Amino acid sequence: MTSGFCVFVTAIGTGGVAWGERGITGVQLPEADPGHARARLRRRFAAASERTPPPHVQVAIERIQAVLRGETDDDLATIGLDMDRVPEFARQVYALARTIRPGETLTYGDIARQLGDPLLARDVGQALARNPYPMIVPCHRVVAAGGKLGGFSAAGGVQTKQRLLAIERAQVAWQLPLGATGYLPSAGT
What we know:
- The protein is α/β, with parallel strands linked by helices.
- It has helices at residues 34-44, 55-68, 88-97, 108-114, 121-129, 157-167; strands spanning 2-10, 13-20, 23-31, 49-50, 106-107, 142-143.
- The chain has 2 domains: 2-68, Methylated DNA-protein cysteine methyltransferase domain (Double Stranded RNA Binding Domain, 2-Layer Sandwich); 88-167, Arc Repressor Mutant, subunit A, CATH 1.10.10.10.
- The chain has 6 helices and 6 strands; from the N terminus they run βββαβααβααβα.
């Protein structure tokens, strides 16, 4: 159960995190408008109150901030997550996604094959689309076959995925459009 949430400033906008007794319960990717990030967290975690994070959550925030500044290749894999409400298949997908190092990518099919059935690629994509822990479970590092980006359900869509991969200096077959800003696009609340 989520007990608290907070927003925090990053190099690319204002993000957020929610937590409970068992660990992080959700992450909000940074947005240009701090109000949007806060509103999304309030909607997702209506029973939680906004407050100062406990020390282990503050450490997680600092690690996320360092990654978004491009200062570290921290994969965030040791940050504790509360997955009580996550279905077993999604837990398996998230565990595999957490093994992808910054700057690297796997395809939906790669993860499906690691799960034992290459026909599960679409199911892998659906599980990642519902990922409540973006950045900590790096769904942005999972791409479509042939190096295509595939979809991305976070605010800003594929542009957000591009921005995160660019920060991590991922070797992929696309470029950010000229004039791209340092902020992730903000979708309506």
